[in-house]
């Protein structure tokens, strides 16, 4: 069984989205079974017991009670979770959300998954922290500088999408698209939508129209309601 500890709109959305995409590909008789635990944001502040589950106190935390080797698995990185899920729960060519080492696009696939968080998501999280969540620290100017820096970091993605491709790797939707899309959601959420290149904005619109993404939004909303959580809005229109 899988357990996903999640805050609405946070980076754990990458993992939840992947789970929904996998289950749309699989037969109803063989779903990827998981339990979603909704937490208040940030959980390390509002739910101290979560530290006993994930000592970092961060989300996502994806727990698999019996990983491929038979031992429990715990994943704390939002871009690693989708790659793990796509690699572990894919059983046929029609369910390929990952890219295999023998494929030409494998190196690019690895790079996009790392690029999504280390290069694209990071500056916008600092903007949100200093401008929205911790304005009392008087570091708003630093947050604004990180927002500008984050826009400049989109150059590689802009250039790649300029050839009109629908997806980033191997002419199909993969978890690289999930991970990159979340970074673009943050960029849009911190007010950069009108500064995104047309091909990049259209790419985001295509991805967020997917049923797997829309199901994820509805699932996280229900989970918050059931847990009695008044969600913190990390960014609008998530």
Automatic annotation (TrEMBL):
InterPro entries: Glutathione-S-Trfase_C_sf, Glutathione_S-Trfase_N, Thioredoxin-like_sf. Residues 4-67 form the GST N-terminal domain. Belongs to the GST superfamily. PANTHER family: GLUTATHIONE S-TRANSFERASE FAMILY PROTEIN, GLUTATHIONE S-TRANSFERASE-RELATED. This is GST N-terminal domain-containing protein.
């Amino acid at each position: 069984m899988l357990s996903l500890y999640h805050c609405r709109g946070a980076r754990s959305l990458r993992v939840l989205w992947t789970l929904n995409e996998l289950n749309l590909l699989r037969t109803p008789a063989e779903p990827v079974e998981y339990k979603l635990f909704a937490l208040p944001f940030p959980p390390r502040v509002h739910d101290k017991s979560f530290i006993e589950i994930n000592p970092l106190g961060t989300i996502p935390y994806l727990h698999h009670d019996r990983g491929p080797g038979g031992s429990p698995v715990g994943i704390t990185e939002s871009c690693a979770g989708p790659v793990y899920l796509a690699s572990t729960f894919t059983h046929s060519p029609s369910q390929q959300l990952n890219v295999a080492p023998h494929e030409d696009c494998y190196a690019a696939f690895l790079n996009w998954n790392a690029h999504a968080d280390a290069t694209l998501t990071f500056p916008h999280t600092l903007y949100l922290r200093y401008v929205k969540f911790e304005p009392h620290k008087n570091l708003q100017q630093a947050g604004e500088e990180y927002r500008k820096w984050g826009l400049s970091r989109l150059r590689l993605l802009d250039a790649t999408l300029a050839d009109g491709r629908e997806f980033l790797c191997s002419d199909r939707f993969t978890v690289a698209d999930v991970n990159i899309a979340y970074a673009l959601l943050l960029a849009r959420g911190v007010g950069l939508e009108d500064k995104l290149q047309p091909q990049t904005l259209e790419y985001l619109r295509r991805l967020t129209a997917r049923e797997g993404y829309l199901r994820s939004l509805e699932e996280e909303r229900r989970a918050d309601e059931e847990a009695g959580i008044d969600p913190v809005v990390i960014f609008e229109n998530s």
